[in-house]
Amino acid sequence: MFPSTRLRRYRKNEGLRKMFSLPFPGPEKFIWPVFVIEGKGREIPIAAMPGQSRMTVDVLIKRLEPVVKSGIGGVMIFGVVEDSKKSLDGSYSFKKDGVVQKAIREIRRHYPQLIVFTDVCLCAYTKHGHCGILDKDGDVENDSTLSVLSNMAVSHAEAGAHSVAPSAMMDGQILAIRSALARSGFKDTLLMSYSTKFASSFYGPFRDAAASKPGKGDRKGYQASFENLNIALKESHEDEKEGADILMVKPALCYLDIISKVKEKTLLPVAAYNVSGEYSMIIASAERGWGDLNGMARESLMGISRAGADIILSYWANRYEEIVD
Ligand code: PBG
Predict the structure, then answer these.
(1) When you count CB atoms within 10 A of the terminal residue's CB, does the N or C end of the chain come out lower?
(2) What is the H or E stretch that residue 103 is in?
(3) Is residue 197 annotated as a catalytic residue, yes or no?
(4) According to DSSP H, which parts of 271-325 are helical?
(5) Tens of pLDDT along 167-225?
(6) How many contiguous H segments (helices) and E segments (strands) does the chain have?
(7) Domains, the chain, with CATH or none
(8) Which listed residue (29, 250, 261, 263) is catalytic?
(9) Is the shortest distance between the CB of 203 and ligand 1 below 6 Å?
(10) Three-state SS at 17
């Protein structure tokens, strides 16, 4: 009690502050989400996400060089394809020479130490922009979607992905993909489930970047509701039982409590996805002179880590050195 308790003693100088601080997560804990497009020598900045762009595979390989040098642990690949490649069932997603499959092979060849994750979801490959196949009423049909997701995951594993990450929020997708990988001989492919993924308003900039906005309706019929804590937690619990190797909470910043709760209930590693809206919000604020960009980025990432995330998917990953400086 005051005056004998004086907590300011711990932070009187930089040395003391450092001594009693939690460490900021190292670069190896970060995964950089990237958007790949077809063709050669093209890079299209994403207006809603300054500092990020859609790139052809050759450009991505160049952009990855400093990122790999900075020690970033991995990349998460998203494919962005032309409308002509989109269909009702998203079958371009599992083509052997598809843009994601090419990106996986090239990244593995150039940067063998970098861990390659891939997003497994149909929204960027369907004409209607939903994450699965639609039934005659326009609802996403769970069970027929599972086989397309499984084909996609196997094709990513075949191309050399270390980890596939299903994000479609279909029931049973982890079991289906785990079985398909096993049948095809990929017993060592890590399965990182977007296990508790919320129907969030913070995905806006991403949907522009990936051209994956649903034409009609929203994703509330399959993504978790932020108004139901128990079901949100059960989503992760079920995926663990189905055979996920890594669980994930997405988005991160509005869901720090969920990250902590998922972490308390599992012995698996927990990932957090610091999504596009969370990134762009900080940039927009800094651009208006309302806060220090690196300070806000660092503080938000520390929060995600403190909540219990073992690994963090974040668009800050390609500017890690700038942020920690
Ligand atoms: C695909 C997917 C989305 C994101 C990651 N995978 C979009 C969505 O669910 O609509 C969002 C990532 C971000 O906002 O950074 N389903």
Answers:
(1) N
(2) helix 99-110
(3) yes
(4) 276-287, 293-307, 320-324
(5) 999 999 999 999 999 999 999 999 999 999 999 999 999 988 888 888 888 999 999 99
(6) 11, 11
(7) 25-324 (3.20.20.70)
(8) 250
(9) yes
(10) helix
